[in-house]
Amino acid sequence: MKVPAWWNAGFAARVGRMAFAVFAAGYLLSLALGRPGLDCFGQAMLPDFTIYYVAGELVWTGREDAIYDWDTCWDRVRELAAQPDEESMIFLYPPLDAWLCVPLAWLPFRVTVWAYLFLNLALALGLGWWVARTFFPNLAAARAAFWLFAGSVPFWHTVLFGQNGTISLLILWAGWRLRQG
C-alpha cells in the first residue's frame, strides 16, 4: 500500500501535537467546570493515585494493618477525593508498595495530587522522547513518533488516572538501556 504524499513526518507530528493540546485543554477545562477533586463529568481526579496516597498515609500514621481494610480505604478515598461510591477502590498491591507511597502523604492531598499529575506528565513525555530518539535517529521521524504517542488515548489514560505504569516503564527502559551499554 502506497502512503499518500501528504502523510509525512511533519504532518504526523502536527496531528499528534493537536491531539495532545486537545486532551490537555479538555482535561483542564473539565476540572475547571467540575467540583474540587471531580471533573465536570463527576469522574475523580487521578483515582489510582488516590489509593497510593491513602496507603502511604495509613503506613505513615502507623495504621499499616488497615491498608487492605475495605471500609477504612473506601471512606478515606471518598473523603479526600469526593469520589462516588462506585468509583472508590482499595489498595491491592504488596505491602512494600504501601511503604514506597509514604512520601506522598507528607504533603496535603491537594498539593500532592497536582504535583503527581505534573511530574507523571513530565516523566511520560520525557520517557516518550527518549524512546522516540532511540528508535528513530531521524529527528523528524522521532518528533512524529513522540507527538503521536503524546496525543494518544493510552498516554492520557495512564497520566489522568494517576497510574504507576510510567514509573514502571521508566525502570524497565532504563534497565534495558543500561544493558545496551
Write the layout of secondary structure elements.
Blueprint: H1 9-33, H2 47-60, H3 70-81, H4 95-100, H5 109-135, H6 139-150, H7 153-161, H8 165-180
Helix pairs in contact: 1-6, 2-3, 5-6, 5-8
Observed structural traits:
mainly alpha, 8 helices, 181 residues, globular
Q: If you had to describe this structure to a student in words, what would you say it looks like?
A:
By secondary structure, the protein is mainly alpha-helical. 67% of the residues lie in helices and 0% in strands. It has 8 helices and no strands. It has helices at 9-33, 47-60, 70-81, 95-100, 109-135, 139-150, 153-161, 165-180. Helix 1 packs parallel to helix 6 and helix 5 (109-135) runs parallel beside helix 8. The model has no long low-confidence stretch (mean pLDDT 84).
